[in-house]
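As noted in the main text, all predictions were made from sequence alone. Below is one such record, for BTB domain-containing protein.
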Amino acid sequence: MSVQVDSTSSPGVTTEGLSRAEGLWFEDCGFIIQAEMTLFRVSRDILAIQSPIFRDLFSLPAPKETDMMDGCPFVLLQDLAQDVDSVLRAIFYYDFFGPYPAPTTWAVLAGILRMAHKYEIEGLRKRAITHISSIHPTSLDQWDKLDDNPSAWFTEAQSELLQIVILAQSLSLDWILPTAFYRVCEYTWERQILSAQIAFDDKARLITACRVLESSAVTKVLSFLWPLDEREKCTTARYKARKDVEARRERSGESTANVPLDVWKEEDWDNLNVCAICLVNMKAAHQASRRALWDELPAMFGLQNWNELEEMRAKAME
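Prediction:
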């Protein structure tokens, strides 16, 4: 919907080429925001309730030459229009961005995280942190349950894994970084890492970690397949399983890497023809090696240990 120039607009304010945000232009409200080429007309009283940054802005004495548009005070924000749109919809439409596990999208989640952090909108900030933390757990048990609780926004965002890292670093959401980095190693190629807008040291550390995760770490996690007894049937089954899983480790084309936490799949147990005693021992050994790797994950990416990261998360949610 095009905006026509209003005679009450300040001389320095132009509406040429601008458009009103559908559903966020309320005629009975008296405050107009511009972000990029989009205009929003909303209630400044509601914004003041939600954000101390806006509250402080509105409490300042209005200068004599305040910019006006359509007879309303007007402000130009240096934020993405999509981000402004997302956070305003979350404020003015109660069901737009519900608490986890309500469905959302990566674009909406990222925009609300940025805006809620910048403008100190605490309720939305904590809600967004819960959404993004849900898919980046700090315990192996939670990680193993993710397949039972898929998040639609993350499935959509798998092509944006490096953007998740960049956003987490910019907002100091360090507790999500070990699993975020881990997924980069699983789904992303070196050339994408090298071209990402992250620090050089992070690129070097990440590529090194990717090599470890695809090689020696997988070898350790699969060590439970080496025979430790002389049962001929079980020994043969172990060697066959090891041969099969090694065959699928090679990465080619657009395939994902077989990283250690998930290289051995649940259905592989069903195809493993060993005795009950060996099966129990193998499952225990496999889980122990996965847990050891999980404990090492933060240090692999130059981060604090899990306990410290969990404390950071708890503090962010206070």
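The first helix runs from residue 44 to 50. Confidence is low (pLDDT under 50) at residues 1-8. These features were considered when defining construct boundaries for the mutagenesis experiments described in Section 2.9.
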